[in-house]
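We store sequence with structure; for instance:
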Amino acid sequence: MFDHHVVFLDLETTGARAIDDRIIEVGLVEVAHGRCIGEWSTLVNPESYIPSAIQSLTGITEDMVARAPTFREISAELAQRLDGKILAAHNARFDYGFLKNEFRRAGIRYSARVLCTVKLSRRLFPQHSRHNLDAIMARYGIACDARHRALGDARVMWEMVQAWQREIDADRLGTAIADLLHYTTVPAGLPDTIFDDLPEAPGVYLFYGENDTVLYVGRSVNLRARVMSHFSNGHRREVDTRIAQEIRRIDWIDTAGELGALVTESRLLKELRPLYNRRLGPQADVFAWQWRAHDLPGKPELVSAVDLAVTRLDDLYGLFRSRAAALGALKEIASAHQLCPIVLGLEDGNGPCAAHALDRCRGACIGAETREQHALRLGTALSGLRMHRWPYAGPIAVRERGEHNARCELHVLNRWCYLGTARSETELHEIAASARSPVFDVDTYRMLARFLDRSRSADIIPLAV
């Protein structure tokens, strides 16, 4: 990769928010064919206040930038210096986001192949816990007399990479860089600027082919990165190759957060049934075992998903795509825990079951074990398959806010069912009041169970029953 044209870039800014904050200094080190061929830096007038904490950290004061050019005034020269080159930065998402926003304000469309040296450090040195510039400088004895200044930090990055080149096998380093670059080719059926228009925000994307045939629906917390990954030169799947040949249009729906993307994708997959997505099985193909510990003799009942009511989920175990799969799972549990096939309804007859003769049943069929004891052991054996209990007293809303609170969505849920999304208090209560009998859906249950289990800090609003 370092045989190519690379720019190591660092920015100093008025804050951490690319949309609201502004650049106050740009520094870059240009490298071609493994050699430094030039450096460039400039202060930038942000046309806004520089917080005292930033002034203290960088040493850049408002007096220093007062007579400096604005970003618009340097934008043409900077775009020329970056044009066609790989952009390398430490925490590249930060620097690249600021560049794109500043160029956009200046009326320039900018995109680049980006290499994040933080990610590269983690890939190359997983044994180290810290990968910030200070930690790496200490590790390699790199000195910097202008730390937290743009050009000084850009020089540190170039020295850091040179140290890696001396330490690491060239093939391993090249492979790690190629994996992170994800070189992306715009498919022939799309405009060259299509990736520039995609937001770096959560949402759902749709690929269309000829005659607006829906080829694929996907979701991501970063739409731009996810869509581009379908067309990168590394690790492309066979289905992505077919999509690249057939795609003619991309559309997307941005959401406030991950849950909004999840429920929107789920709805569109069922409505549109895209050509290259995994086909979702019909509800009737899903089965579960229903069993109540207090119902002796304790025979589990196989029920179909079409018969499931959301009020009955607490006594259900497992979700299976066929009757055969459900029966096979129960037989394996019986064998592993020495449960009686006759008591479980897996075998007809009276007296000892076939498993008892093989010492695989503790004798509930012949009275050597009470039905209560058998039921207790069955409950333990089934516990790993038990469906999640709804952990709330009634319906809830999950509040999701977009970046900088610019957008707010309230997703209404009840007993593992998605009822709708509201964007106001009025809509919220209308949705909760109108959905008295939510319809259970297996895919939605799995999705919501995973989300709520993973998102411990989700903003939950209990709603009146």
